[in-house]
Amino acid sequence: MGWFWADKPNHGTVDSNVAASVAPHGINSSNDIGRCPVMAGNSKMNKENPLLNPLNNMPNLSHEKHRDQKINLPKERTVSTIPKGTSDEYWEYPSPQQMYNAMIRKGKIDPNTGEEIPEDAVESMVHVHNFLNEGCWQEILEWEKPYTEKSHIEPKLLKFTGRPDQLSPKARWNYWMGQLFPNHYQGELPFDRHDWVVLRRNPEGKKEVRYVLDFYGGPDDADGLPTFNIDVRPALDSYENCRDRFIKYTKPIWDEYVSKK
Questions:
Q1: Residue 11 Cα distances to 77, 104, 126, 142, 195, angstroms
Q2: Per the annotation, which location comes first and is thus the protein's main one (predicted)?
């Protein structure tokens, strides 16, 4: 797990509720475009639904200003440090205007009243969204490090999807244990979940590796800024992933109690 602090925003303010609305890393999907973050791609549309991009399960987001929008929002998008699995390019984050339009689409913003999420908070939301996605990618790079050291080729992000209504087995287990042993387990449900599919290079060629990301809200820091606890790990859908998780989670115990003897 990694704790991430939202840097002080350049424009406006952002509280924990607003930050949670764009939750990281992560990435946005058509399932809940108001809850997940967005990283837009340029691939061909899903054949079953021509309006959806198969790499992120979301529609294209407009850069046009909403007719009832009161302030102008930037339309420039920031290029991430996350390489695309389908090209030599990098994923791009949504512009503040795209984020605003996404929030309206899911009813997170009422352009007539500005209720729930004010217009002047959108730029801060994008800032938090981008920051958390970068943190998620760094967590994945740590998991991938043993393979990268062998291949000398960095992994790439092939595709992703938001699954906010589907609890991962680990999140469900931690919640149940938290009800029984509140002093030892957090006992809170994540406010969001993403699945990221990473392209890994190995001697046999390219391999797709699915990662599960659970997002938890944390207490505000001393400056009143929101913090987030993001549990990033490979999915338990292959022998290799199970082995990697076992090694990573048991290594601290081994180093402390066995290797020192």
A1: 16, 20, 11, 32, 30
A2: mitochondrion
Q: What is the CA radius of gyration of the chain?
A: 19
Q: Tens digits of per-residue pLDDT, 197-220? A: 999 987 778 899 999 999 998 888
Q: What is the DSSP string of the chain?
A: -EEEEPPPPSSS---HHHHHHT--SS---TT-TTTS---B---PPPSSSTTEETTTTEEPPP-SPPTT--S-------EEEEEBSSSSSEEEPPPHHHHHHHHHHTTSB-TTT--BS-GGGHHHHHHHHHHHHHHHHHHHHHHHHHHHHHH----EEEEEEE-TTS--HHHHHHHHHHHH-TTTS-----SEEEEEEEEEEETTEEEEEEEEEEEEEE---TTS--EEEEEEEE-SSSHHHHHHHHHHHHHHHHHHHTTT-
* pTM for the whole structure: 0.76
pLDDT in tens, 48-87: 454 566 666 665 667 778 777 888 999 999 999 999 999 9
- Rounded Cα distance between 232 and 244, Å, is 13
Q: What is the pLDDT of residue 90?
A: 95
